Amino acid sequence: MTLNEIRRLYFIIRTLLLYGVDALLPKQPLTRLAHLGRQSLFWLKNQHPDKPVGERLRLALQSLGPVWVKLGQMMSTRRDLFPGDIANELAQLQDKVAPFDGHKAKAQIEASLGGPLETWFSDFDPNPLASASIAQVHTATLKSNGREVVLKVIRPDILPVIQADLRLMYRVARLVARFLPDARRLKPVEVIREYEKTLLDELDLMREAANTIQLRRNFENDPALYVPEVFSDYCRKDVMVSERIYGIQVSDIEALQANGTDMKLLAERGVEVFFTQVFRDSFFHADMHPGNVFVSYEHPDDPQWIGLDCGIVGTLNRDDKRYLAENFIAFFNRDYRKVAELHVDSGWVPHDTNVDDFEFAIRTVCEPIFEKPLCEISFGNVLLNLFNTARRFNMEVQPQLVLLQKTLLYIEGLGRQLYPQLDLWTTAKPFLESWMKQQVGPQAVWAAVKEKAPFWAEKLPEIPELVYDGLRQGRQINQRLDAYYHGYLQTRQRHSRATYMLGIGATLLLTATILFANHVETLPGVAATGAVIFWLWGWRLCNKTCNK
């Protein structure tokens, strides 16, 4: 561990202790060593004893930087795992992180655009509309068309902080991979590498602009989801300009209810939007914490989601989608045998796994979650039990699905807040079954024919020529194969003759040795001479064979 990493690790520990976050550690045998370590650092006392522990945790994570703020954002959606007061405090990390100076933001925007801000915008507000871990947002009006817009700008000097934390996380991950028996399955280094990629991608607002444009196109004129328009002419690597939207934050349940929102339909549409992104588009918003999700004021009886901040998106290939859909449907049908077989077929568990035992273990974990409203299901406990099952059967973590797993956690957290009675399984099952029919049924065949029809129409006039070329090339290949085979037979014959001559030479040499040992005067010399002649002959044949 380098000196800078040691300094950063000490800073992390120091920050957590100065904010008294160690108070969250339960007193039990497993944490005894941690409590002893805390007592040994007696000079690092809690500097904020008057503040609630939830606020102290939020301030500590905020002080540690964007990597830790992202962790707090995810924790804020898991109200089944954390008390309400802590979850409410951590929810402020979604869009209420301490801002940086608005005049610095303006100067950074002008440097990126290459001129005074007033050239393109009016009514720029130096007070940020929202401030998050990596960027903050200011409002303005676009002079060219009078549209209200928001300008998103990256926090200055944030990259070195992120890189320092990532280096430390890599160091810890390598130690875990080296010393823990479950490391091969958990793939800690691969998981950190995937997290690093997504985090660094968020620093490139040109990438976020492209993601937003793609997601907007996927849901164009869709009543379920609205994505703001991006003004790409004014976007740069550290600046993005997009349409300003007005909506109710999805976590503001009182405001949604006061607006007359159909909470059940809103929750069901959230599930629909998620599965549509994953299975129809293979392109999903992977940072759906409440700070990035709003609900339109219009048509509360037919509510529409509004998605912001597309800096982190996930994609799945055809095999991943098919595998996930088949697993979901098997879960919904309680076909745990199918789930076990899919895991084995996909290679997630070793091929020598006892499918019967694996099926029983999955049934034990998953059966209790069905036929219950969402408010009575703790997916945290389910995931923990599945983790223990994975440990028993050597299941490996799939780094390419980490974003999808995180998004599922966000969806669960939002579902709990909006409509706890939502039957997630009944809502998702028809969608997945319909998607599977489109992939493997007659619809899939017809869709493939329509998709390939332009290509076939283009190639149809060339078919006679392609057939003739194929036949001619086939004849040439046959001629070459005949020539190669004839050459192979000749080489094999020469090799056989060379082996035969070398064998005769060895026999004559052995004969000469025996005759010489028995004191025969003339014959040993004759036999030895014959051996040399046959060896030279055999060597000459071998040399010809090698030179062919």
TrEMBL record:
InterPro entries per UniProt: ABC1_dom, Kinase-like_dom_sf, UbiB, UbiB_bact, UbiB_kinase
Record's bilayer topology term: Multi-pass membrane protein
Any GO BP: regulation of ubiquinone biosynthetic process
Annotated metabolic or biological route of this protein: Cofactor biosynthesis; ubiquinone biosynthesis [regulation]
Family note: Belongs to the protein kinase superfamily. ADCK protein kinase family. Belongs to the ABC1 family. UbiB subfamily.
Entry's transmembrane regions: 498-517, 523-542
Gene Ontology MF terms: ATP binding; protein kinase activity
ABC1 atypical kinase-like domain ranges (all copies): 92-343
Binding site for ATP: 129-137, 152
Catalytic residue list: 287
Cell location: Cell membrane
Entry keywords, A to Z: ATP-binding, Cell inner membrane, Cell membrane, Kinase, Membrane, Nucleotide-binding, Transferase, Transmembrane, Transmembrane helix, Ubiquinone, Ubiquinone biosynthesis
Principal subcellular localization: membrane
Ligase recorded as keyword: no
UniProt-recorded name of the protein: Probable protein kinase UbiB
Domain of life, source organism: Bacteria
Gene: ubiB
Role this protein plays: Is probably a protein kinase regulator of UbiI activity which is involved in aerobic coenzyme Q (ubiquinone) biosynthesis.
GO cellular component, one term: plasma membrane
